[in-house]
Each structure stands twice: as C-alpha cells, then as structure tokens.
Amino acid sequence: MVHFTADEKAAITSIWDKVDLEKVGGETLGRLLIVYPWTQRFFDKFGNLSSATAIMGNPRIRAHGKKVLTSLGLAVQNMDNLKETFAHLSELHCDKLHVDPENFKLLGNMLVIVLSSHLGKEFTVEVQAAWQKLVAAVANALSLKYH
Amino acid sequence: MALTQTDRALVLALWKKMSTNVGIYTTEALERTFVAFPSTKTYFAHLDLSPGSSQVKAHGQKVADALTLAAHHLDDLPDSLSALSDLHAHKLRVDPANFQFFSHCLLVTLARHYPGDFSPKMHASLDKFLGLVTSALVSKYR
C-alpha cells in the first residue's frame, strides 16, 4: 500500500485544483496517441486519427480524455485507498478493454509532461516527484485485478 | 524507429534555440530524476546530490555535451557515441531502465521551459531522438 506524506498530498491537490479536466485530459490523451502511435489500437472507433492535427482536434478523443482525467480525480480524493477505488476499473481494463498495463505508465508520464508544460514554474522538482508517485500508484492499482 | 527528416529538423531547431543553455536543462533533468526516481541515485553515491550541487551541474554539462553531439550526428549515432557506448557498457553499467527515467525528466524540463515550442510533433521527435541515443548507449551491453 502506497503512503503519501502530507507534503505530497498538498503538492498533488494544489495542482489538481487548477486542472481543466477537458483541456488537460484531451491534450494528454491526444499526445499519447501521437507520441506512441501504437496506442491508437484502442481507439479504432473514435473517428479521424490520421494526423497530429486530426487527433488533437478530435472531439471524441477530447471527451474520452476528460473521462480518463475525471477518474484520476478519484485517485486524488482517495490517495490512501487506491486499491479499492480502482478495483472495478481494473477489472474493466483487463476483461473488457484488454489494455496492457504498460499503457497506464505511458499515460501517467504523459500527464506529468502536460502538467509541466501548462504549469511551468509551479511544476517544481518536488511537485513532479509527488505526481510521479501518484501516477505510478494509480497504474499499479489499475493492474491489480489483471489475470 | 528511425528519425524522419521532420524529426531531425524539429530536434535541431530546438537545439539551436537552446544554444549554450542545454546544460541548464540537463542539470534540472538530473535533479528531477534523482528526486522523482530515487533508485537512480544508486549510480551517484560518489557525488554530492544536494540541491544546487556543483557536481550535479558538472555532470549535467557532460550529458548536455553528449546530447548536443548526438543531435549534430543523427546520421551516425552509433559511431559518434561509440566511446560513450563503451563507457556505459563496460565501466558504468547503468541499467537501461534508468535512461528512460532521465529522458522523461528531460522532456518534463523542456516542456516547462519551452511550452510554445513543445508541440505534440516536437514532443514525439524529441522522444524518438532520446530513445535512439539510449539505444546507442546500451548497444554494447551484451
């Protein structure tokens, strides 16, 4: 079970309050599909993914990015209880979506990069470290029900 | 995963813009790597890793010089990085996973200092470039 210190929790929540779920979620997912094109394998039915411009402008990708980031909001609110919080989503990603857990790490790191580009100065070394811990813990929680 | 002409142009454009400041960013990337991924510190027990350390800064500059060399020799990375490949394979023996931690932190650093230049395409090209440098560095491991 991962333990977050008070400082880490503060670093995480202070950033989260500034996050526009649709904007950041859309950009994170879009960049994932552009930088690691093989991740597009999960999004065949999402319309036009033929170019970077098409991907970043795709409203369905944007909406899905928002959905994913909203779930991450659950993590921010339940940092002491990630296993239970993500149990159902873990089952879903294994049994229905068939997503390799490696992708959770890719997405988590992508989010860190997007946050950095948006927050600049505020995204200090300590803030990044706290966020790396969170995304790694979420990636792990999401893989727990895999079989 | 080879670099296209577009990838090369983008990487070189950013390198030109960073000019003599590459060392500042690689140093910041190293600091971020040590704090976000503490296991990486095991390779630097001989250095003072406290914030602002001049030894980390010196190491950051070494890394910057190597990356700059690489950026200007995209056609023959294995050859131009040959000496560094030998060093990492036979002397330093840094586990390959660690280069990914550093590459990630370098992207985080560049994203916050050059947000306007950090388009998804630039991001992809940089990621590819760093991946190729890593491959060259570990090419002689076994």
From TrEMBL, chain A:
Segments forming domain Globin: 3-147
SUPFAM superfamilies membership: Globin-like
GO cellular component: blood microparticle; haptoglobin-hemoglobin complex; hemoglobin complex
Record-level GO BP terms: hydrogen peroxide catabolic process
Single GO molecular function: heme binding
PANTHER family attached to this UniProt entry: HEMOGLOBIN FAMILY MEMBER (PTHR11442), HEMOGLOBIN SUBUNIT EPSILON (PTHR11442:SF7)
Family membership: Belongs to the globin family.
Name the UniProt record assigns to this protein: Hemoglobin subunit beta-Y isoform X2
Taxonomic source organism: Cricetulus griseus
Automatic annotation (TrEMBL), chain B:
Taxonomic lineage from the root: Eukaryota, Metazoa, Chordata, Craniata, Vertebrata
Residues of the Globin domain: 2-142
Superkingdom in the source lineage: Eukaryota
Gene that encodes it: LOC100764041
One GO term describing the cellular component: haptoglobin-hemoglobin complex
Species whose genome carries this gene: Cricetulus griseus
GO biological process, one term: hydrogen peroxide catabolic process
InterPro entries: Globin, Globin-like_sf, Globin/Proto, Hemoglobin_a-typ, Hemoglobin_oxygen_transport, Hemoglobin_pi
Name recorded for this polypeptide: Hemoglobin subunit theta-1-like
Any Pfam family: Globin
Family of this protein: Belongs to the globin family.
Keywords (A to Z) from UniProt: Acetylation, Heme, Iron, Metal-binding, Oxygen transport, Phosphoprotein, Transport
MF-aspect GO terms: haptoglobin binding; heme binding; iron ion binding; organic acid binding; oxygen binding; oxygen carrier activity; peroxidase activity
